[in-house]
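User: Run a structure prediction on this.
Assistant: Running it now.
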Amino acid sequence: MKLETRKFEVLRVSILSHCSFACVYCAPKNKPDLPNFYPKIHYLSPELLESKIKALTSHIQLKEVHLTGGEPTLHKDLVLLIQKLKEVSINEIAITSNGFFEDGLIQKMKLAGLTRMNFSLDSFSQRGFERLSDRKLPVERLLNRILEAKTVGLEVKVNCTVLKGYNESEILDLLQWSGENGIPIRFLEFMKMGPLQEEHSDCFYSAEEIRNIIQSCYNIQPYPTAPDSTATYHITDEGFIFGIIANHTEPFCEGCNRLRMDSLGRIYGCLSDERSFDLPSDPSEIPFVLQQAMDTKKMQFTGSELSMKFIGG
């Protein structure tokens, strides 16, 4: 049984179900964010990841596996997880992190096979960083981690979720810092997911508004963008590269090639659909389950009650 014209090529794995931050768009205070089927803390084991990857790659060709969370660097076996992916011939191995982890981890991950790091950087100012993350930690440490990853030779990107009333005034500062350091930055529309669904419209800041702010100071031109990219990229006259991920106002769902897995090993076909599927032990049944996951994909993002951290972002 073959998948139809669309196919899964990227797997995003939430390797654990918790985070060291409580960002306002993911886990705000006084808002429940745990589905009733999730244990409070759960780690995806290296053995389970390996078995799931082997089951999947016997039926689909994965060009990338992207490890997310929660905060993936909290996983005690993170380096081993990366090694397992390398051993089963996954060539592109990426991770998204908040940047707060022990010294030396970046080099260990690179030696294990990591090829790219994406960092969440939602504010350039200390006050803004604390307000968005709900943590009194030095934003300078995050900036240094980003530069460290670039220095050791990893491909690096910066992600900034833009929320009205929180950080839209920092878009230009973030673009300048990233651009001057030769790092592409992606500005994300706040997605209608998880605990802040009801308040989504209050915090939403559109792709058009983001572009308008950037164009108030910079001349921009289109920059080459891969057909399956979630971001639309531009470049300024100064050579600063930025992308905008606009799930709501400029949907790209019809080109989505992403499959997601949670820390329990269940797969999801679409961010806008909460249905998950277990991969069967009988290899002959896997194509049917993959088709079920594919059938959940939408042509436009509609939102979900699940918090992003449970299904790999």
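DSSP finds nine helices and eleven strands in the chain.
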